[in-house]
Amino acid sequence: MSIRFAVFGLNQGSKIARDAVANPELDLVAVAGFGQQAEDVAAELDVPLFEDYNVLLKEVPLDAVAIALPNGLHVQSTRACLDAGIRNILLEKPIANTVEDAEKIIAMCEEEGATLLIGHHRRSSTKYLFLREFIESGRLGDLVGVQGTYAIAKPHAYYDVEWHTKKGGGPLLINAIHDVDDLNYTTGLTVKRVYAASRNSIRGNEIEDSVSVLYEFAEGPTATYFISDGTPGPWNYDLSACENHFFKWSPGENSLHFFGTKGSLGFPNMDFYSYEEGHFGWGEPLVKEHFELEKNDPMTAELEHFVDLCTGREKTPRCTGEDGLATLKVINAILESAERKQIVDID
User: Fold this and answer.
1) What residue stretches are annotated with the GFO/IDH/MocA-like oxidoreductase domain (predicted)?
2) CATH 3.40.50.720 boundaries in the chain
3) Cα separations (Å) of 329 from 145, 194, 323?
4) Of residues 184, 218, 194, the one with CA closest to residue 95
């Protein structure tokens, strides 16, 4: 029996809608959105388009929904879906703009017994699944530090969209939130303190265009992170992993480095450096071990995971509401630290 499915929002949601049509267990019965892109996607997929998702909910019976609307609409759209009897919700990242809104979403889904999957799709990447297992294996030894980079140049036309120039539309909430969630997921560590310095010197918009961050983890390790969406560079996961069809060129660079007492790993190139048993120190030759992985499409894999949740084949979402909230708290702490120019502790 097919799962009657709808997608709200056809910017990010267009990929979900196309994947849904290709999934034999999903029946994409409607989509919600407005504007030329929404009309084109609906026509391409031959599915009814509703400008108002509330009308869709009244007229179309559904088993599951993907919400890819602006963050500020997540609370009310989740509430509307629950009121319509839907108990399987894929909610795009970030879970919300504020901790309060995120807590509302988590609480209402728990009260209704609904399954909530937050769309941090990299948790479904074969690369990140491998990285999580590698760190857990102990081959790094004790993790001491992490160095992360997201340096990329978005096209000038990207900023013709007004909300991309306003508070909440910068690379921290759009891009860095992925990198923060990646660390949360793969290391299992808890960020307890951040210090951030941000600048808008590249474009002069209201939002940041470069940020440097220092993390302290409750368990002891530290991490540094630099992000800019106005600097040409290959040191970012999107280009290096080449998992997204939008990015067609892979420079072969790493976006993350993990440093441990037994070795260090470059990611996503998967080059591991350590010493032979009984040898240690800079006068000794390093042994390089390279890992080859089969690449997948994380967003497609995420939707397949969502189907498994809907059917009961899997019980636990890879990214729960609580996971999404933990990531949001770190991003909000970075924004607060940069604005106040102070260290910010995270509860």
Assistant:
1) 129-265
2) 3-119
3) 21, 11, 10
4) 184
pTM, rounded to two decimals: 0.92
What is the residue type of 244?
N
Q: Give, in order, the Cα–Cα distances in Å from 221 to each of 148, 229, 326.
A: 14, 27, 18
Taking only the tens place, the pLDDT of each residue in 262-315 is 999 999 999 999 999 999 999 999 999 999 998 899 999 999 999 999 999 999
Say which amino acid occupies 80. A
The amino acid sitting at 227 is I
| Peptide bond preceding 155 in cis form (omega within 30 of 0) | no
CA dist 16 and 64 (Å) reads 13
Q: Say if domain 123-297+328-345 classifies as CATH 3.30.360.10.
A: yes
pLDDT band (50, 70, 90) for residue 243: confident
CATH architecture observed for domain 3-119: 3-Layer(aba) Sandwich (3.40)
Q: Which amino acid is at 292?
A: E
The Cβ of residue 139 has, within 10 Å, a number of other Cβ atoms equal to: 14
Residue with tokens 């909430």: 173
Pair of tokens at residue 94 = 């970030």
N residues, the chain: 347
Distance CA 198, CA 184 (A): 22
Distance, in Å, from the CA atom of 48 to the CA atom of 55, rounded to the nearest integer, reads 12
